[in-house]
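Worked example

This section walks through a single chain of length 371. The input is the sequence exactly as stored; nothing has been trimmed or padded.
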Amino acid sequence: MINLIENIQPIGERSRVLLIGRSISGYEGLIASGFAELGLDIVSIGYEDIMRDLYGKAPGWFDGVVLRHLLISHAGEYLIKSIESLKFYNKLILLLADKLRPDLIFVVKGEALSSSTIKALTKLVPAERLSYFNPDDPRYVELVRKFADAGFRIFTACYPCINELRIAYGRNNVTLLPFGATPLPSFSCPSRTKVFLFVGSVYPERLRIIKALLRHGYPLIVAGPGWRYFIPGAGAGVYGMKYLAMNRVVYGVINIHNKEDIDMKANMRVFEIPGAGGVEITDNPEVVSHYYTPGKELLTYSDLDELIELLRDLRKESPEELCYIAKNGYNRTLREHTYKHRASLVLQAVGIRPGKDRGSIIFNGYDFKNP
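Given that input, the structure is written out below as tokens.
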């Protein structure tokens, strides 16, 4: 029913990456673009992409969250062996690994990989080229131990976890890999509307803060999965160029980390907002300050009272001051925080040299030409 794409062959002198995860529309696509900029050829495979092709649509936001929680639970192995699309996903991973013989296997989270698939991958690729990235707090994710025990190098976005993980898995086997950004190609400073923007999924802490800001009368644009059930007039998710463009025409873009991320990691918005030329207003200052200078490249707050005061003061700022902060943040992102920088960290850790020309990306190594 489903065939491997025939043009997937060992590719000349360029190094090859087999990128395994949930969907190329998420983080996987961003890091893939970084590898391609460094001259590598990438074949990606995502289980939600397979579900979309098999059943006509991928899981919705809520269904996807539920599925991911089930896959990392004790029921995970049973589900992987029981759900047809996940069985195919694991089979295809091994077929692609065997055919490609990639120079690097890069697994993102890996919740849908069976133990037998993980073990089989270790026999197809040298241990130093097996890499695993989990952006969640890895000290409490059993998956991290599962991949580490199989010999995968661990990459984590959790800044304070590094020393603890290196003690557990070896200093040379753990590397910090923060999120990054795909910045707009140039910076401009258009006139800014005196409203504030928040884009992201709805969670209890975010809902509490957004409702409080609305009660205080601050003009807010709120968008993202789930918000329309709680905030009248809230929009659906905003992505791509539309999202990036919105960042640079408002007075400020609010970033609210999940509760579990506070003091642990900088989320994706930390890098995306300045990369789009926005004035970022973010919590989690202890971690964020490792990447940007508060007050110069973005603005930070520690609690709701500080945020309310910050928004009040920000509405009085001149357009020139807002432009100064936005431009500094944009330039810092270009210098240090693109996905090309992040992909370079991976290649340095595993000992692969970048290529000379831009590489290619193949989204899922199969087709449906002969159903």
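What to look for: The first strand starts at residue 3 and ends at 4.
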